[in-house]
TrEMBL record:
Residues holding ATP: 292-299
Molecular function as annotated in GO: 3'-5' exonuclease activity; 5'-3' DNA helicase activity; ATP binding; DNA binding; DNA-directed DNA polymerase activity; hydrolase activity, acting on acid anhydrides, in phosphorus-containing anhydrides
Pfam families, alphabetized: DEAD, Helicase_C_2, RNase_T
Transmembrane segments: none
One GO-annotated biological process of the protein: DNA replication
Motif DEAH box per record, residues: 468-471
Keyword Metal-binding listed: no
EC number(s) on file: 3.1.-.-
Native source organism of the sequence: Metabacillus arenae
Record's catalysed reaction(s): ATP + H2O = ADP + phosphate + H(+)
UniProt name for this protein: 3'-5' exonuclease DinG
Gene transcribed to yield this protein: dinG
Hydrolase among keywords: yes
Enzyme class: hydrolase
Record function comment: 3'-5' exonuclease.
Amino acid sequence: MQQKFVVLDVETTGNSPKKGDKIIQVAVVVIQDGQVAERFTSFVNPRKTIPPFIEQFTGISNEHVQSAPDFSEIANDLVDLFHNAYFVAHNVHFDLSFIQEELTNNGFSPFAGGIIDTVELARMVFPTVSSYKLSEICQELGIVHLNPHRADSDAEVTAQLFIHILSKLKELPVITLQSLQKIARSFISDMDEIFDHFIHHQLLQVDQKHYNEDVKLIGTLAVKKEVSVPNRDFYNDKSDLPEFNQYIKEVFEKNGFLSENIQNYRYRKEQALMAETIYDSFNAHEHTLLEAETGTGKTVGYLIPSIYYSLRNQKKIMVSTHTTTLQHQIMDNEIKTLKESLPFDFHAAVLKGHSHYINLKKFEKVLVEEDDNYDSLLTKAQILIWLTETESGDRDELNLPSGGRRLWERICGNGLTNNNNLQNVDYYHRARKKAECANLVITNHTFLLLSCLNGKEENIDYDELIIDEAHHLERIASTTFGEKLDYLDVHFMLSRFGNVNTGLLREIYKWSKKRKLIDHLLIVELNNLVTELNEEFDLFFSSLHTYVKVQVKDHHGNRLSYQYDCFSAPTKAWSGLMELARRIQFFIRAIQKLLVKIEGVCLLNGESALNSRERNSIGEFTGYKGYFSEIYDKLDHLFLSPVKGNVTWLEIEAKGAKNAVTAYAQPIMVSEQLADQLFASKHSAVLISSSLTVENSFSFMIKQLGLEDFYPKTVKLPSPYELKEQVKLVIPTDIPIVNEVPFTDYISSVSTYISELSRILSGKTLILFTSYQMLKATYQALKKDRTLEEFVILAQGISGGSQSKLTKNFNMFDKALLLGTSSFWEGIDLKSEEIKSVMIMRLPFASPDDPYVKARCDNLKNSGADPFFDYSVPEAVLRFKQGFGRLIRSHNEKGILFVFDRRIKTASYGKHFISSIPKVDIIEGTIEQIKNTIFSFKENI
């Protein structure tokens, strides 16, 4: 390749050259013939003071640039480098905007050549990396980045990244390159000539009989060949296993199998006891609840006996955890370690629902559609490359752009056509095949529960079950066994179905009219019905939106919830809404009849009369019958024929679109369903979590999960940590009681406390909230506090990004505050050897306005129970235990748990919280007394 690439990076005084921000360092790496040919770097005098945060971020001080040249003095050198070159940068518009501004200001013509954005290309070429930030993608690719946020180092690693990108593109199959070239013409990066070169190179390789043996052609797609799954029973691999007691000793003891493969391995008797308990439960065919406190090593603790039992008894073990992310963590971490550690072979497989796996037939179809949406095009490009690498076809491997979700919904395996992929390449079937011959199947709670509903068709045959993170099971069951109807989902699907001017219906109309295979008048009739259906849906959802705003008069946030009861006497307004729902059902039935008629005409004319693209279109088209049936049934379950025992509610955004409404129906109690559909059919189910007891009793959880009639075994394993020495629980006495003062006064008080304590702790602090309103108000107060300028302050829903992204940013800084709600109460590790602290703003009672919580409490009250002490307090205690568990993650850590809600000591129910966590020293006092405690605790580390 003869092209010249100038890879450039600048450091600046700010983000906007138009507002006077200036370059303070520029670096260039020139690439020719795939090699670094030249380098240039210089500090630049901006003729203005460098802001302190820029100095801290880049390490470039005013002293560095004081005697540096002005940009005008290096401009000629840069212009010479730019001659006949592509301009390459990581986030190219940022660097280019500064260069163009300086060139123009100094009398030079702006750069007019091709531009290439390595962020964009990296997203396309490396679709599975977790982050496209320069330092993070370099780390994943093994590129050494010695000095991040300095232009010389950034330009050097950007050049290496670009060489990686070109090298990978060069090796792609020609059919993939040809598809990418068509898509990339809409990208920021000017890649057309580069693709031409690579396509020519690959065609030459084909002519010379050099093929990529790892991929095969499926239609117009190049996909990775499947590594064959042995067609044998993994259970029979080992008949010479030692006795279980000997096995446990060989695995866990000092100098055992685990110690040889796990760095800093520490024997924990609680972990060995867990393994013995689980094995005994399997052998006795009994259900067990097992609470394992922080540090027990529960994942390895349940995998060790499960693997042994499977091999010994030729039985499959199903392991279910909370999320798909945790499924992969288990496979990538613990399963990998055990495969390296244990002296015998075993097989584990991940299994998820259809929607996680790509359908090649659907993807091939969307690939040729006209598309001007950037995220959609980028997603298509990512998937084209990913298909040459993936064996699983699992969407969770991909790091898709935010707008890629909608495209995935059209190409995943649970769509509107059958799941038979091109030439029988069905990734979901492939995953099931692996699961069927595995010792362990790692799934998630949602898939586990859906399998109960769908019966044998979805089931993998197993009798023993491990339920990890079992404290989530009841709430996920309620969601899974319920219904949800969302306007945006309906709008997206109907938009895809389209009309005679857009979407799928337009395609059918055009070729049916041309080929006369279908009476195009049928399509016109269908178009009229769909148009009316769209209008009825818009009217229905906008009317629901208005109805909720009228009903919920006093509200403080944007998100409004309104619980409705279909069994109470309807008002005139509600009756009108129900009439709209019936009219929608009428149009759905009429549309379904027409779809059946059109499908019949196609069958009568014979599929041979259709080309492959037309067959795909008609398959997706008539497949909408299932989608319309689903909507029809949801209207029944949510509004017209609701199920007794369900709670139903509507959610809207008060300031959002007038028809953006979501309707929910969920069973108030799922205990009977779990008992009948899950636990009754299993020999053994072992439910594991760090939060299953309230005041050392399992009775609350046993009742919630429907296990009362099974008389389950219960085991509570303490933490192996010396928590009394490692943790202090601090309760301030000079903070007002949360519900006894105005909201603004409470925020002012806790913000002052957070500020003072954070400066003393001088490290990382996780601050947990139960409401977003309080989080936002506290964040705003802390950001205004000038004494916290040394701290990075991050907040869920404000700072941007997912939980993992916020956590990663949090762990990058020595001094940081992270404010979180909901998911941050569990699953986050604070990476620091310094003192850590967790601050809990309020005891984590669920909002009484939450429709599900309100329905649960009303149900208990009607049955004569006390909803507060029988439900609200136990639920809050379990949540509180999760927050406590965020603090200590190893034997050598120390930390302080601050509880700013004085009700933990003043209210009668406060003792339930304290008695449910491990025994630790409790310190109460004013801010001055607490400061002394912190200083003393720090000195003893």
